[in-house]
Amino acid sequence: MEVLIEFFSFQDPNVVSVVVGAILLTASSAVVGTFTFLKKKALVGDAVAHAVLPGICLAFLLSGNKNPFFLIVGAFITGWISLVLVDTITARSKLKEDTAIALILSVFFGLGILMLTYIQHTGNAAQTGLQSFLFGKAAALVGQDLWVFGIVAVILIVTVVLFFKELTLIAFDEHFAHAIGLPVRGLNLLLTSLTVMAVVTGIQAVGVVLMAAMLITPAAAARFWTDDVRLMTFLAALMGAFSGLSGAFVSYTAPTMPTGPWIVMIISMIAIFSFFFAPARGIISNTVRQRNQQAQIMQENLLKELYRLGEKEENHFQERSVQELIEKRHFPKRPLKAALRQLKRRGYLTHHHGLWQLTQNGKAKGRRVVKLHRLWELYLSKYMKIEPDHVHEDAETIEHVITPELEAQLEALLDYPEVDPHDSKIPY
Amino acid sequence: MKVDAKDVAVEFHDLTVSYDKKPVLWNIDMTLPKGALIGIIGPNGAGKSTLIKSAMGLLPLSSGYVRIFDKALDDVRRWVSYVPQRETVDWDFPTSVLDVVLMGRYARLGLLARPKKEDKEIAMNCLQKVGMEAYSKRQISQLSGGQQQRVFLARALAQEADLYFMDEPFAGVDAATESAILEVLQELTAQGKTVIVVHHDLQSAAEFFDWIILLNMRLIASGPIDQVFTNEYLQEAYGGKLTVLSEVSELIKKRRLPSREKY
């Protein structure tokens, strides 16, 4: 707790710089990653992330120090080469894109690890910390590093904002973009460069191994909450920033701990939470919606059955016991009781001394379901030439689906028929 | 059989197009008139979509050229609009109906600029023309197939072009959408604009179009409907492929030959 207060009071200037840096890096990768995600190029991001490692090592070997500018240039070059190779392999050989990505990713990463091991054995004192590019070290974001990586991150965000409408269009409909004369090749090149740059800057906080998660996961999580690409990009940035902040905190309190895995765990928790709990698109709200639908079908079936019993006995307001309903139609007992109670609450049924009775409203609703059922049976046999003994099952489902507009259309089309194919009277 | 247009909107000159080296259209050579509602008809795999894609510069040409309003495509792009098949995009994309229609304005806006109030008004106007103004704020995944097609049409209208290429706008739409789209197309041609439509249904083709292009890997016929829509030409287009032509295409693909020699 004390550490938490100490950290968030921002009295240590190092804390401020680490926090600002981590937030900028993760937010900018999330913003660029939104378009990688929308273009369905998640794996490409992973390939680039792994392919920048040999570039970083090479830059170090050539320059002999860890100047962030050289490291970025080196990483950018090998990141780019990897993408060009993936495209070339896909276009020129029989191999498909997924194979090309897997090949390039492992070759470049293997090369990177080889070079890293070599550097470690040279005994160059400057090499300490190069290791942190593997799994990230947000706490290293101070001084010159912060400035260089921070500025690149800001440039990334500004570029995406400026080209937002074009990037959205090429992600949604590249053919159309081409047809109206947008420079599609140039824009794709821009997005690729942005992705490489996002990876190059993000690895300082997250590391090459887990960088793909930082590109894609915020966008995937944000997608659950909104249908607007602008809001989605903003939410992704926010979620990325939050995970970056917590990564910085971990890095501050436990300096030996790599930050990448922490950041990725936190953004993944956000994604899993979104997956379950987001309204409209989340699993839970989907399940609830389906349950409500089933409950509604059960209730409509019940009213229909009560109406049909009344029709047979020529008394719609006959009181009936639960037992009788179960015998007539094999309703399962517990859902049946729940449905009865719900129908009472909604004013379709009344309940006295353990017996259930339709109200006027309930009768009307039951009549409508019966009518839709029989109209649909008639429609099937008349227009689709289906045998009368095959239409019932279909109508059981469709009776719950038909809207009032379709109901009116059916009535007009069939010209208010008297009876269905089984000679049952259609009630209006 | 081909009839030359008097007032030419589009000229195809000896056009050959290949996919992955395999020629799918051979030596298409014709002119199409301004202000007409033109249908491209032919069996599956005849190269109908390929023809308009190559006219829009979306595919590399193996030989020949296309001129629009007697100019190269890049000089007149602003006046040419394209409606892709609606299956070519992901309708779960996080965007609204109005935003999709606004995409039709992007070419005029240019890079970096944001749509202005005027653009939004034009987009709403176009939505109204296709009877979709009530849906402007909907997320596009909530639309039915017919509604998706109308949104694509509205996007093309928002371009305010003079020439429209449309890939199967009538495929899989409901009757209400079909008549709504047809009405819009007829209105466009009444204003002197040219509309070229890939179409798959012979029966409605006879009612919809003034000019017909019959295609089956090669040009069978192009001309006013009363001269082209005859039993003879229809049979030629639909009466089986030219097997030798198809086999030669396959051979060219296998041996990775360019369909035109360089020297």
Ends apart, CA distance between termini of chain A? 71 Å
User: What is the number of domains of chain A?
Assistant: 2
On the 0 to 100 scale, the average pLDDT of chain B is 90
Q: What percentage of residues of chain A falls in helices of 4 or more residues?
A: over 70%
Q: What is the C-level CATH assignment of the largest domain in chain A? A: Mainly Alpha
Number of discrete helical segments of chain B: 11
Look at the structure and give the CATH class of chain B: Alpha Beta
Amount of beta strand of chain B: 15-25%
Estimated share of beta-strand residues of chain A: under 5%
Oligomer type: heterodimer
**Whole-number radius of gyration of chain B?**
19 Å
The low-pLDDT segments of chain B are none
Task: Sum this structure up briefly.
Chain A is an all-alpha fold and about 425 residues long.
Question: Describe it for me?
Answer:
The complex is a heterodimer of chains A (428) and B (263). Chain A is mainly α and 428 residues long. Chain A has helices at 2-8, 13-38, 42-63, 68-92, 97-122, 132-135, 143-162, 164-172, 174-179, 184-206, 211-223, 229-253, 259-277, 283-313, 322-328, 333-345, 360-383, 392-398, 404-414, and strands at residues 349-352, 355-358. Chain A has 2 domains: 14-278, Orthogonal Bundle (ABC transporter involved in vitamin B12 uptake, BtuC), CATH 1.10.3470; 282-428, Orthogonal Bundle (Arc Repressor Mutant, subunit A), CATH 1.10.10. Chain A contains 19 helices and 2 strands. Chain A has a two-stranded antiparallel sheet with strand order 1-2. In chain A, strand 1 (349-352) and strand 2 (355-358) form a beta hairpin. The longest helix of chain A is centred in the last third of the chain and has 31 residues, at 283-313. Chain B has a single domain (8-254), classed as P-loop containing nucleotide triphosphate hydrolases (Rossmann fold, 3-Layer(aba) Sandwich), CATH 3.40.50.300. Chain B has helices at residues 48-55, 73-76, 97-102, 106-109, 117-129, 145-158, 175-190, 202-208, 225-228, 231-238, 243-254; strands at 8-19, 22-33, 37-41, 61-68, 80-83, 163-167, 194-198, 211-215, 219-224. A 6-stranded mixed sheet of chain B has the order 5-6-7-3-8-9, with helices on both faces. Chain B has a 3-stranded antiparallel sheet with strand order 2-1-4. The two termini of chain B are 32 Å apart. The model of chain B has no long low-confidence stretch (mean pLDDT 90). The A-B interface holds A 38, 162-163, 165-166, 168-169, 171-173, 175-182, 223, 226-229, 232 and B 53, 56-58, 74, 77-78, 80-82, 84, 88-90, 93-96, 99-100, 103-104, 106-107, 109, 111-112, 114-115, 139, 141, 155, 159.
